[in-house]
Amino acid sequence: MFLDTSTLIAASIYLTIEAIGKEIKDHFYDEATRLMSIIKKNINKRIGITTFIVEEEAYTVLERAVERKLDQRVEREKVFELLSIAVNSCESRLRKVLSSVLREPINPVEAGQTYISVALMYNALEEQALKLPKPAAMMTDAAPSFLNKAEIFEMYRSQDEILNSQLTNLIYNPVEDSDKMILAQAACLCKLYKETEKEICYFLASTDHHFVPVRRQRLTSRQVTDKIVTNFGIIAERPQKIFLTLRKNGL
Amino acid sequence: MEKNVACDTLSTSLEVMQASRKIEAKALDIIGDVIKECENREAFWLSNSEVPHSTAFILYHASRNARIIFDKMLNRFTFAHERHENPSVVHDARLVFPSLYDICNILDSLKERQITSEMLQFIRKRVRILRNTAEKASMLPTIEEEAKTIDKEKLTTELEELAADLRVNLV
Predict the structure, then answer these.
(1) End-to-end CA separation in angstroms for chain A
(2) Does residue B148 lie within any of the structural domains?
(3) pLDDT on residue B1
(4) Tally of domains in chain B
(5) Chain A residue closest to B57 (CA)?
(6) Which of A22, A69, A76 sits opposite B162 (nearest CB)?
């Protein structure tokens, strides 16, 4: 299982202040930590992997968040010490998380070639997103005449929006080059593992919507996730889903 | 470049204590002097309005980390007899001292210089190395120890804002 930056960060943002009985954690902290507990329990099986780029990216993401905070007008005397403690706390956790996963070396030439395939895949998906049909109007026309057409249209439209949200998300939040490279590296390792192991299920643990399905109101949008499976044989999923799958398989 | 007199004195003192396998009484004063030098560095970067907040913070953060590790060292030396850590505490101090010495020298060398983003990246990595080494030598204070004297409510707010920002910018 390949851990991406978002999962590493999610497992690192946690602080408990006993004095005030408060706990601060990332929205995905619990599920990321559950997955980490399986990785730790099976540490000899080396099931959690990552790469140098992902590690560096995780530290950079934390640094950028601090920089954004400092870009606002701040009184140094009031903020610096607090931020320094917060950074130490997050980085300490991140270091502990990283100590349980295997950092795999990557062939840069192979990763570069795979990056091109990843970039082409996202370009094609973005084009697909721009040409999405709008079936809500057609389905509303086909609805029985005694129903309120405006309400029916709204219902179908919101369904369309959810079912296509993973694709449309690519237009509003274009995938960063660093994330394309992370997927390329995950794909290189997936290929390598599949060459050496007979039967293997290779996961990418992430919370990013340009990798994992979008789930809302019992509906799932997974066009990008499915394309990743087809093109690279990688199952991109949220940490919680992977945790449940692994537990079902006795890990 | 400014000379780290207290750091040099501590270096010599640690060597003497390692050879004699005994803690010198004056070691506490020497570590105390080193802590004062670190506090001066922290104050320098806090008040230096010529550099942007983000640059000053990285240098402050490095100075502060050096100081809290020296604080932990002082605490361990103070209670070494009670905790039967004599002379193992000297050995631990010698493990972390080179990284501390390096970071203090680097920070002093930057006081008069134009600071580039490469330098800041270098400092960030040195701080991580320092904290890793300190942890291995049991010279790293816990987060509870670090946060002992600060306003917990304000710390909570800072981390909550940081967590929210990370989530917005990650997904």
Answers:
(1) 13
(2) no
(3) 47
(4) 1
(5) A80
(6) A69
Q: Is B23 within the bounds of a domain?
A: yes
Tell me whether strands A22-25 and A14-17 are parallel, antiparallel or unpaired: antiparallel
Residue A247 CB neighbour total at 10 angstroms = 11
pLDDT in tens, A166-222: 999 999 899 999 999 999 999 999 999 999 887 889 999 999 999 999 998 889 999
- Flag the least confident range among A11-20, A229-238, B48-57, B103-112: A11-20
The whole domain housing B103 covers 5-140
CATH code of the domain containing B16? 1.20.120
Minimal CA separation from A189 to chain B, in Å: 23
Flag whether residue B162 sits within 8 Å of chain A, measured between CB atoms: yes
Instruction: Answer yes or no: do B46 and A76 touch at CB < 8 A.
Output: yes
**Using CB atoms and an 8 Å cut-off, which of residues 34-73 of chain A contact chain B?**
59, 61-71
Residue B132 placed within a domain = yes
Contacts of A24 in chain B (CB under 8 A): 156, 159-160, 163
The more confidently predicted of residues B101 and A160 is B101
Of A67, A70, A85, the CB nearest to B155: A85
Residue A44 sits at the vertex; the CA angle it makes with B135 and A60, to the nearest 5 degrees, is 45
Torsion of CA B67, B69, B72, B78, to 10 degrees: -70
